[in-house]
Amino acid sequence: MLHLRLITPADSTADVVRLIENTPGTAHLAVVSGAARNPVGDIVMCDVAREAGDELIDGLRALKIDEHGSIALENIDLSLSKRADKAEDDAPGEGADAVLWEQLTEATHEESTLSVTYVAFITLATMIAACGVVLDNAILIVGAMAVGPEFGPLAGFCTALVQRAPRLALRSLIALLVGFAAAMAVTVGFSLLMDAVDLFHRAQLKAERPNTNFIYRPDWFSFVVAVLAGAAGTLSLTSAKSGALVGVAISVTTVPAAANAAVAFAYSEYRQAWGSTEQLLLNLLGIVLAGTLTLLTQKLLWARQRERTARKHPVG
Q1: What is the 3 state secondary structure string of 246-304?
Q2: For site-directed labelling of 130, which of 32, 41, 110, 255 has its Cα 20 to 30 A away?
Q3: Which pTM does this prediction carry?
């Protein structure tokens, strides 16, 4: 269940209450007249099943509550109520399958913002991966995948494509390009430093490296895994099952490919650098394609679900 807290202008409260009462999946409606001070208005609260949340938010935005008041939504960790149970039964579909598009857009907006912290994480992840490729250490590669924050802007870009949000798309693209460029540039310097102190060696990079040579040898399996990981990551975001993101993070080789390209460039191994760059681009393409198609499919399925619900529970 979700908890919805609204500040509504007094002349809109009746319409808001009517909307909530006519939305299947709501419970525990409460109205406190004249309680809000900034902005001035009434406070309206209710609980809503997750699968009914997107429809209700759309209705509230149609009433311009987000412009003249406020809409706040938060998860309820525990709700002991027969009315809440009935609301979840009345709501269409399953909560785990529901997509809250406004929440998704807001979350990906934050995750796709180019910041010092984002650049620091992706740079550190790339340097860890550089150690992994030189030492042919799969554990370090997995660690770098888990640290890398690049899935945030990738998810933001997919969301922007589906929601037709050009600003979010541009923000996500800038975060990806600048983040990877900065990380690879720093890793080139890092590699030269490690070579200078005799910790990295050209021979290590040119060795067969059975555990990590896949990073600069892209093939169709690379694309297939990226597609599967992109779909899984997108589902983990839309269904709020964020624990799956760790699994997604270690399923793709974006950061390790960038690291291998940087190290190879530092040693003038341009063929290996190009192979790693191909791997990076292939994985990015697979994730974006899968993420976008997953979101489009979810949007279509929920649109049909809402149509069926509207026929079953006509308003008025």
Answers
A1: HHHHCCCCHHHHHHHHHHHHHCCCHHHHHHHHHHHHHHHHHHHHHHHHHHHHHHHHHHH
A2: 110
A3: 0.80
**Domain range list for the chain:** 2-96, 103-302
Q: What is the pLDDT of residues 154-205, one digit of tens each?
A: 989 999 999 888 998 999 999 999 999 999 999 999 999 999 999 999 999 9
For 250-300, write each residue's pLDDT tens digit: 557 799 999 999 999 999 999 999 999 999 999 999 999 999 999 999 888
Measuring CA to CA, how many Å separate 142 from each of 133, 147, 197, 221? 11, 9, 25, 18
Whether the Cβ atoms of residue 154 and residue 291 lie closer than 8 Å to each other: yes
User: What dotted CATH number matches 2-96?
Assistant: 3.30.70.260
**Preceding peptide of 166 cis, ω within 30°:** no
Q: Return phi, psi of residue 9, to 5°.
A: -60, 145
pLDDT tens string 16-57: 999 999 888 899 999 999 999 999 999 999 999 888 888 899
φ and ψ at residue 89, rounded to 5 degrees = -70, -35
What residues have CB less than 8 Å from 160, skipping those under 6 apart?
Answer: 108, 166, 167, 168, 169, 172
Residue 56 tokens, joined? 């209700």
| CATH code for residues 103-302 | 1.20.1080
For residue 62, is pLDDT > 90? yes
